[in-house]
Specification:
The chain is an alpha+beta fold. It has helices at about 1-10, 15-30, 50-60, 105-115, 115-120, 165-170; strands at about 40-45, 70, 80-85, 90-95, 120-125, 140-145, 150, 155-160, 160-165. The longest helix has 17 residues, at about 15-30.
Length: about 180
C-alpha cells in the first residue's frame, strides 16, 4: 500500500521508490512510529535528492514545508530518522548495490524477496538539532543589509559587523538577467 502511494506521488514506481519505501518503513518501525500519518515528532534528514526522497515523504508525512524533511546533499542513498519525543535516531541505508534487472518488474520482484535485514543497514546515531532547525514558527529572523531580503531561522551570516544573507555573503547560485 505504501509503495503504491509513493509511486502515485512520484509519478511511477522505480527502484528508488521501492528502496525508499522499505528504508522508511524499517526506520519508522525501529523508532516505534506509525507510517502514513503526520508524525509531528519526526524529522528526517535525506542524503539524496532523488526518487527515494519522495518515498520518504509519502511514508513519513514529513515535508520541507513543515520543516520536518531536511536535505543534506551527500548524494548517498541514505536517510536519518529522528524521533523528537525520545531523542532516538536511526540512519538507514541500502547494504548492497541493487542492479536493475531488464525490467522494473523484475527489479521490484528481486527487491521484494530480500528481507530487510539483508537489504538495509540500520544504525543508531545521535543528531544534534539546533533550535532554529525545528518545525514551527521561526525562532529568529533578520534582514540582509545588502539586498534587504528577510532571512529566516538563523541562516544569516555576520561579516564585518554586517548581517548578510548567504547569497550576498558567499555568492549566489543564480545570476540576474539583464533586461
Amino acid at each position: 500500500v505504501y509503495l503504491k502511494k509513493a509511486g502515485d506521488f512520484h509519478g511511477h514506481i522505480c527502484a528508488g521508490i521501492a528502496l525508499g519505501t522499505r528504508i522508511s518503513l524499517a526506520a519508522m518501525e525501529a523508532l516505534g512510529l506509525k507510517p502514513g500519518v503526520k508524525n509531528k515528532n519526526l524529522i528526517v534528514y535525506a542524503e539524496i535528492d532523488r526518487c527515494m526522497t519522495d518515498a520518504v515523504q509519502t511514508v513519513t508525512g514529513c515535508s520541507l514545508g513543515h520543516r520536518s524533511l531536511k536535505h543534506v546533499d551527500y548524494g548517498r542513498f541514505a536517510a536519518t530518522f529522528v524521533n523528537l519525543d525520545t531523542g532516538r535516531a536511526v540512519r538507514a541505508t541500502v547494504k548492497e548495490h541493487i542492479s536493475n534487472e531488464s525490467t522494473i518488474e523484475e527489479t521490484l520482484k528481486k527487491l521484494a524477496r530480500i528481507p530487510d535485514t539483508e537489504l538495509i543497514t540500520m544504525q543508531e546515531v545521535t543528531v544534534n538539532i539546533p533550535e532554529t532547525d525545528l518545525p514551527g514558527l521561526p525562532v529568529r529572523q533578520a534582514v540582509c543589509s545588502a539586498c534587504g531580503e528577510r532571512i529566516m531561522d538563523g541562516r544569516e551570516v555576520n561579516k564585518k559587523d554586517k548581517v548578510l544573507c548567504r547569497a550576498c555573503a558567499n555568492g549566489k547560485y543564480y545570476s540576474e538577467c539583464i533586461t
